[in-house]
# Entry
Amino acid sequence: MLSIKNLQAKVEEKDIIKGLNLNIKPGEVHAIMGPNGAGKSTLGNVLSGREGYEVTGGSVEFLGKDLLDFEPEERAREGLFLAFQYPVEIPGVSNLEFLKASVDAVREHRGQDPLDSVSFLKLAREKCKAVNLDQNFLKRGVNEGFSGGEKKRNEIMQMMLLEPSLCILDETDSGLDIDALQVVADGVNSQRSVDRSFIVVTHYQRLLDYIVPDYVHVLANGRIVKSGGKELALELEEKGYSWIDEEVV
Amino acid sequence: MTEEINELIKNEYEAGFVTDVESETLPPGLNEDVIRFISSKKNEPEWLLEWRLKAFHVWKEMDEPTWAHVQYPEINFQDVSYYSAPKSMDDRPKSLDEVDPELLKTYEKLGIPLHEQAALAGVAVDVVFDSVSVVTTFREKLKEAGVIFMPISEAVHEHPDLVKKYLGSVVPQKDNYYAALNCAVFSDGSFVYIPKGVRCPMELSTYFRINEQSTGQFERTLIIAEEGSHVSYLEGCTAPMRDENQLHAAVVELVALDNAEIKYSTVQNWYPGDAEGKGGIYNFVTKRGVCHTNAKISWTQVETGSAVTWKYPSCILKGDNSVGEFYSVALTNNFQQADTGTKMIHLGKNTKSTIITKGISAGKSQNAYRGLVRMNPGAEGARNYTQCDSLLIGDKCGAHTFPYIESKHPSAVIEHEATTSKVSDDQLFLCQQRGIDVEKAVSMIVNGFCKEVFKELPMEFAVEAGKLLEVSLEGSVG
Ligand SMILES: Nc1ncnc2c1ncn2[C@@H]1O[C@H](COP(=O)(O)OP(=O)(O)OP(=O)(O)O)[C@@H](O)[C@H]1O
Ligand SMILES: [Mg+2]
# Structure
């Protein structure tokens, strides 16, 4: 699915990703944890091709293609999805219109006909329900005035609509109340399949009780410094990150 | 991201072509003889010639205004040609089938299939090609309702009393420099009269088009809504590409008598000039309406074209309880400059006005809102609500707001809100990450920003407006 080799990237002339390796097979769930400022969000931005995030070395293969060759929108259409840590508002553009444009673009890329408005509305309502968002949210501006938790659920709804191959969830659990956490986790779990993989970025072991990962990685100072099974998360919860630093050094 | 947007806004202006229709054009220059020529060409009555000449003398004594937030090379008014008419004018076509096929082709290129449009939308179209109206449809049906909708040059002959009574009654000759010029040399335009109590059975629509090299276009429109009548008038324009700057100085006068309602919608897409700021239309327009008791005038404009726009559709709320509205979208890109807004003059008691404007600036353009709200001493209980929103795309453009508020009545309430926002890289990236390309994303965001104004456009016009905006967004914003 995804193969990252010795990836290096800088932002504003500052090296942030410093030789990162990661392999993800279809169907796997990888959790990435690590201290603030380690480069977790940067990794998501680099993979999705955000402007200003400059790759200075290494390679990324996604579904057999050189991911770094593609424009951000092409990467998205190819099946790479990023749920944002801080979803931005687009006032005036209705969520429904935005989602339709998005789904249409992806479908067109896959050689499918666009959905007619009625079928799309039906589908969107279904997904709203799945993440426990009222249908009113379809009419409102994209993330406009949404609470933190509503924004996160909106991200998961988009993921469900787009049916991507690789989902990067950047702290989708932060700011969620207990019920919402369950909703989001259920949403994610319902999307798990043999040909869909996940990168789940989180600070909290708790999320991983709901979304059980196949692997847990620690990203520190721009690199994966430790990898393990789901028990690694428990260990981190207990001991923090300082022991790893020492181990690495 | 800015780079990408700059790329996008470089696209060519889609309506850029020149139709090859032989036309009769007067050599450049303006003097009494030119005015006499124009007047005699139209077989005008003596009073109108006198009126024009009087305006000419007024104009000669005036100076071009310089207060607007726009800059352009000085216009030499002696370099402008003041009359041009398609050759086919003399034997005017009775139906569309008789229209010069070249003309029809022009409209088709613009995506205005006249036959279809007239038939499908039930719109009566008074097409102004250059200075002379060549086609008028649906006149019969309007006649049944008693509605008069014809070129003003014909109305002068067929309804001289009405024209004489109202021409210049809302925008006096000496009102401003361009209005005075228009009075002296106006070419043609529309005349609308809605009798007492009549609801006009269809939207009245006119497409304007400039087609002659260095020919000024001086439209003159007069709409009279008798007591208790109702009319919706649509004006749309687009112009072919050329290098030379073209002068456009139109005057529109609206008269809404007691309990009448006039809705005037414009989509303006004159040639804006190229990416280097070369060429484009200079658009100096005076639009004003007067509202008598309980009357309502609503201006809606979508301004996407012209190199320079100077335009303030206004309402004089003369009668008690009268209502004025101004809804505006002004989009500028490349080197376009717009200074546009409105004037709401509250004279009567309990008069009400609403101003909603959306300014969008891209490229290196400058976009200014200029609005005056005046509550006169008699305007007891008058109210105004103004909302001016600006949206910036890229970082080389400018948005400016110049609100003028004069309240001479203590009970008058004036509310003013203004916001400025930017299409942010974060927003565009969110769209891209969802598979939506930048061009579509910008168009979606801009459309969303303008929603409040677009919903004021009549249905029949919304499609056309959408298309014109799409062209501008495709070609100008992305
Ligand atoms: N656009 C940017 N401009 C400047 N610095 C940036 C930018 N993006 C990231 N950085 C810097 O890169 C480093 C890594 O940031 P990143 O957001 O990837 O951390 P993170 O691991 O996601 O942290 P957190 O757990 O707090 O979300 C930080 O020092 C951050 O300040
Ligand atoms: Mg982060």
About this structure: The longest strand of chain B covers residues 281-291. Chain B has a mean pLDDT of 80. The longest helix of chain B spans residues 459-477.
